[in-house]
Design a protein that fits this description.
- This protein is mostly beta strands and about 190 residues long.
- The protein has a single domain, classed as Lipocalin.
- The protein has two helices and ten strands.
- The protein has helices spanning about 1-15, 80-90, and strands at about 20-40, 45-50, 50-60, 65-75, 75-80, 100-110, 115-125, 130-145, 150-160, 175-190.
- A hairpin with a 4-residue loop joins strand 3 and strand 4 (about 65-75).
- The protein is elongated and about 50 Å long.
- The two termini are about 40 Å apart.
């Protein structure tokens, strides 16, 4: 019996500890979801969403991502022009009254280096769900130097989508508003202790 216990103890101490994922939440004060879309080919118009929430699980050792969910309130769109904002909220674009949120869900990522990788998930917008891939950079990962003092991941992400994939075809054919939309995400994700 004593010999069996000794062998079990030796085996348990020789097996490396399994990495443990932590849960993170997006800091609403330091999260920006922005987009750029062409206006008649002259210049890109910038828009942002001011109400964004989200969380995910991430393992620093294995770079494994899971259970990511980001929710964006579509009526919170802001392009710095009241008339344009009302149009973007209308049925021609976001149809915010019928679809007050858009969501991004992901359960895995693919590292391409120590601080770079891709995250593929599903974006639901205007009632339609389409796969989308984010190019992600981990800018910094350490304890916040002041304030809340929690462990924080600083993340940048980029993606491109087509409005027409979400049945948002207003002004696509005549080229007044671009079909391609460039997405830019900057966030500080705080570890949930």
């Amino acid at each position: 019996m004593r010999m069996a216990l000794t062998i079990c103890t030796a085996l348990m101490t020789s097996i490396p500890a399994m990495a443990e994922p932590h849960r993170y939440e997006l800091d609403p004060e330091h999260t920006t979801v922005a987009f750029f879309v062409s206006h008649i080919g002259f210049a890109d118009t910038l828009g942002i969403f001011t109400k964004v929430t989200g969380s995910f699980s991430y393992d620093m050792d294995t770079q494994a991502l899971s259970d990511a969910l980001v929710t964006i309130e579509t009526p919170s769109v802001e392009s710095f022009n009241a008339a344009r904002d009302n149009h973007v909220r209308s049925k021609d674009f976001l149809d915010a009254k019928s679809h007050p949120t858009m969501t991004f869900r992901a359960n895995a990522g693919e590292p391409s280096g120590p601080t770079h990788g891709t995250v593929t998930g599903e974006l639901t917008l205007r009632g339609k769900t389409i796969p989308i891939t984010l190019d992600v950079t981990l800018n910094r990962a350490e304890k916040y130097p002041f304030g809340h003092g929690r462990f924080v991941l600083g993340i940048s992400a980029r993606a491109t989508l087509k409005r027409s994939d979400f049945r948002m075809t207003y002004a696509v054919e005549n080229g007044l508003v671009g079909d391609e939309v460039k997405i830019m995400i900057e966030t500080e994700a705080m570890r949930m202790e």
